[in-house]
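Can you give me the bound-state structure? Components:
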Amino acid sequence: LEADVLAQVAAAGDLSTLDAVRVAAVGKTGSISGLLKTLGAMSPEERKTQGAAINALRDKVQEAIAAKKAALEAAELDARLASETLDLSLPAPYRRKGSVHPTMQTMDEMISIFAEMGFAVAEGPDIEDDFHNFTALNFPEKHPAREMHDTFFFNPKESGERMLLRTHTSPVQVRTMVSQKPPIRIIAPGRTYRCDNDATHTPVFHQVEGLVIDKGIHMGHLKWTLETFLARFFETDAVTTQFRPHHFPFTEPSAEMDVQCDRSGGEIKIGQGTSWLEILGCGMVHPNVLRACGIDPDEYQGFAFGMGVDRLGMLKYGMPDLRDMWSSDVRWLSHYGFSA
Ligand code: PHE
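Here's the bound-state model for the whole set.
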């Protein structure tokens, strides 16, 4: 039996054959295991000598199997190493990498600058109701000011209420003031919607709203905040701005801020030239808005602003047409995109 089993072990050409040999010899019902079972019927003397012999046989066979197994495994590895060679001189396959969209890059930059200035980020829904988008912001009922925004309205609900796509991020001001006690210092970045479409207006655009409510807040705080932000954003102290009186129902006084730039060449250049480009609307929060949100205007004042993200991105990165932002043209995206 010994010679027979050892010959089988030596002849096994692969691991599964070797395992079959192992089971046939030392498995539960294997030939050597069978021999061990015959010990019970033997006399004590015989059992001693035969038991030692059978155990020695079993050990020898198991050793031979282990040695063969190691040899087979080594051979298998050698074969794999020989067949799976890696040619390090081959050129790597070309892979197109995605990039951060310029609008999102601009938004991230704006958020981190305001975060460093102590502003928290607030959010609101894109689908708004009339109250938050208009009424609480002091838009008179049935007033053409509501039409001035070229609003996208949804079909009226059964109640007659008409939901809409927010025309600005200002409703987040309302949501914040209703749910938080002053002092408040937030920005609200997000998408906004109006039925506009030309080189400087797209139907979907992005704004960053700002709101500060505290005691003794005045226009000086507003101007400092915006100028400090713009110097950081454009990475130069040479940004020249002007406040131009304007009207918003929700701020009084209201202003628009322009940046001085050079538009004589193809690209718009900040910090030089004689042109002015509007970048944001702002003002002191109207007492009616504070009242609508449960804040006493005799105790608290505040300022608010809303700036166009796409517009600021265009200015910073020198893009001529706002509509390109939505073109999904991979050549444009890889030219202006930012590595992730
Ligand atoms: N919501 C205004 C707009 O979209 C901008 C604005 C925000 C003006 C806050 C004043 C205060 O045009």
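A couple of observations. The chain has eleven helices and twelve strands. Residues 168, 170, 209, 248, 251, 281-283, 304-306 surround phenylalanine (CB under 6 Å).
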